[in-house]
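Re: beginner question about structure tokens

> Can someone show what the tokenized structure looks like for a real chain? I only ever see the sequence side.

Sure, here's an example I had lying around. Input first:
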Amino acid sequence: MIDHVTFGVADVEAARAFYDAALGPLEIPATRGSEYLEWGDFSIARTPGRAVTRGVHLAFAARSQAHVDAFWRAATAAGGVDNGPPDLRSYHPKYFGAFVNDPAGNNIEAVFHGEERLLPGRIDHMNLKVRDVSRSLLFYESVLATLGIERVGYAPHGFAGGGSHFFIDQARPSENVHLAFTAADDAAVEAFWEAGTGLGAIDNGPPGERHYSPGYYAAFLLDPDGNNVEAVSHNRPRT
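And the corresponding structure tokens:
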């Protein structure tokens, strides 16, 4: 479901040092591009002056409890602020998670569910704060339905697909995040864009080929709080 997430950062080197340290124990490969620094499905923007991402909760899948422990130790040693040490949580009996705030205050988590649900390092779930939950729910229900992503019954404002989850909650809104969802094909990308613009969402890039990789077909919309939401079809098998 969640294809990739990009944070804008004020200090690229500080953010790089933090995420290299925090995500290394989760066995996430790092890639250095001309525009982005990437760790698997997560990246930070190298673009000077990009608006800073704040108020996001992003959780990465871990292989074991020991990997969650190592994440927390490395992230706090690298200057992250402890937001919940490694422990079992109430979400389900085997949910073992740890939380650390990154340099911009985003809540970064590593979680092990008692078994591997996703490949190590994949984005397990994301929580986005929104100004008006009814308005945002209408937007996300409409655009995600075109991608085959539906709401879940066990969370008030949650969506699930492909082993990952996406949640929205009403609070001081998250800022300046780029969130991409996987589309099965080009037609699904087009349906996503048509559903969003039909609701009055701001077009941030109509359906078309992009330069990021061969076969990369995507469309972009701004959600009700101005975050950049994408649907992308890679036109190749996803590993």
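Each token stands for a local structural state, so reading them left to right follows the chain. The helical segments are 12-23, 65-77, 133-145, 186-199.
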